[in-house]
Fold these 4 entries.
Entry 1:
Amino acid sequence: MAQASKGRLNYRCPSCFMRDLDIDMFYDTEKGEYYCLRCQYTGTEEDVLEMNEKARMRYKDMMKRFTDFEDFSD
């Protein structure tokens, strides 16, 4: 395999990100895909972006301050 290099943009691995690990992915120019050295996740740029969007739903309200908890009690 070729020398590991960062891609044009630093994408984080969606599989690791769902487990609260912030791991950058590397880009393989021969295969045209990104891969993670830690968990062996591989995917195209579109796959990585789609999976990272799904993972971001966990943090959509991270910067929101909750003061009314009546909506959450069931």
Entry 2:
Amino acid sequence: MEKRVIYGVGEELLNNLKYPDCDICLHQVNSEGISNVVCPVDKVNRRIGCKKSSKGYAQVCAEGLTARNFRTELQNVVDSIPQLMRFRKEIEKSVHEAELQKMDRIIHNIKTQNAHAIQELTNFIEPEQFAYDIKSVIPGVREKIKTKAHHAAYTILRLAKINTAMSEEIFIYDHITHKESPYQLEKRKYDIHDVLMLVFHEFMPDFSNKQVTIDVMDYDARVVFDFTVIRFIFYHLIANAEKYIKPNSVLHVMFSEDADSNIVTFLMTSYHIYSEDLDQIYNEGYSGKIAVEQKTAGQGLGMYLVNIMVKLHNAKLIIKPGEEIRKTGKISFSENEFILHIPKQTS
């Protein structure tokens, strides 16, 4: 038996499970009482009734009930309104707190990235120069770029990385928050090797500090994908690689394809991925066992966000943990593969 229920308090409509054609019947029970109707939706005989009290009001229609049982059901709906109100307020509070958490996270992360950007700039340009007129400062900055070209290049790369991180934060927040108007993919042909290297260049100083060699296979194929989403995925996969890769090792990147996908494979010696890590790697807030032990864990968002973007692009990410564990000090490393399948266009 299907029931259709409308209930509210005062002018506030709390629930509405009606169909558009239900309005044909509802005008018959705008005051307390019950009526028999032939449902305009499913063409069966139904009882329809209205009940009001200090708790609220309810309009219910159902089939297969005697008049007595129907009145009991109607009364039960009205009596349950206070509990439903409390439940609704609890849900609203929970949703509000969840949204505040998301907002707090993006504000915190953007503030952090902005602080890093300011630090990079003030490491290259004396802070007091920012107080002067830009035109008067340009000659000194130009001369410094000439005499400290390496430092200037390093600063630009660091700022590019920070800017990308801030852009990704805003992008993912906007995508998750505005589900009623989801991100529309714009797939075009790109040189996938160039896009990957664009992201890699932002991390080169960090890999250099760990004496990690980047070995990217030559590949000149143009692949159809959404630039923003795939760049986002590359960014977080490379960020994770930089954080967890073994120092003095090699990060290999290979390109291939099969009948359905263009494939990008990241192969590296990095923190060993245990079975429990693999089971939870896409869970929001989860960090791997070794990352927690070594206090190198972040907020546990990288792979969670990558998973969202992989699904958005209808792509697939396969993680193959290495079976052989190699210890360096107290840290367990293994040969791990992260294999991204970007679906080919069918049209």
Entry 3:
Amino acid sequence: MFDAKLRPLIDPPLNRAGLALARMGVSANMLTFTGLALGLGGAVAIGFGELWLGLALIVANRLADGLDGAVARATTPTDLGGYFDIVADFAFYVSIPVGFGVLVPANTLPALVLVAAFVLTGTSFLAFATIAGKRGEETQAHGRKSFFYSTGLAEGAETIAVFIAMALFPAWFGVIAYAYAALCVLTVIQRSALAVYQFRE
């Protein structure tokens, strides 16, 4: 919901940093896999009760995720890089609820519900992107991307805000997880309604 609105604010500094990293020989894929390692490390840290370390690694993951796209734009974006980026993103997204589920057994059910909601959201996102690409449709709302990014209520910025809230208020994990899972389901409904409108023959 807020991703497209944040792009004009975060892209200029990211692009400057991405250009500097590209000149140093750092590749976008290197940053993608570094970010994935940091994000998964954050999930492991949360599972072991190291919530502040987990929070720091979540933030580091998002920084690396922003920089990989900036480096790609400073060089030559590739389809393979786009593939790795989206797979790394969803691997990170599902790992954090799992970490909270490991931390406290009572978190297991809300963690599973949230992971299921992420799977549904991701499926609708990728299905929409596939069909939009097949039809030759394009959008620049989220910047230059490897494939079509459809806007939804629950996007990257909202997900990170939720993860930060979970790390700061772990006792409220269940409430936050169920509430965000509901928003993810609403996103699927919203995207499906858009598909009906946009893909109608």
Entry 4:
Amino acid sequence: MIRIFAVSGFKNSGKTTLCMKLLEELGRLGVKTGYIKRTAEEALSPRATDTGRAAELGVSSALWGADGLRIESPAASVTPDYIVSRYFPDAEIVIVEGGKYLDLPKIWVENGEPRPENVSGVFMVYDRNSAGDGKMVFGAGCEAEMARRLAATVRGGFYRSAKVYIGDRPLPVKDFIADFIRGSVLGMLASLKGGGDASEGVRIYIDGKIRK
């Protein structure tokens, strides 16, 4: 199961810096990661663009240009689980920058201001001006240890070899079932022309609608 953690705090508290350090340290540990930046500002294209107009009609859209790909989706359908299942299906850990009021486990970045009472789920605190206690509060220079603790939530004595989603919802799968699914799918693909190389992973989409 993919773990999603929020790095939350007030503006200019150092959230981005901490996110980049955690992503770097998790990468050194071999953990596949994803990153989402949460903002209160509008992120969709202006109404004048075709993709922006389509999004206003409730249609998810993609804008493909020479500099990259931008996905636009109506706000009503967007949740952390939706974003992760669609765009980071191979990740083990996804870090959301911001989202102090999202229902996610959080690392709170201190900046001297009192934390709002309605911020829940804080399991670690990052305070650049404190040495920390090594248990819940961590200071500058402790990012590697913080990353190790995050990695421990997805890495044990095994590595889950397959992930299954029903729509946007990850389906809990035991490790031996995940291994069985992986082996079965790769075995079938190996018999198809061009299906023998799965080094970059495999994605399969099954239409749940029954057509008569």
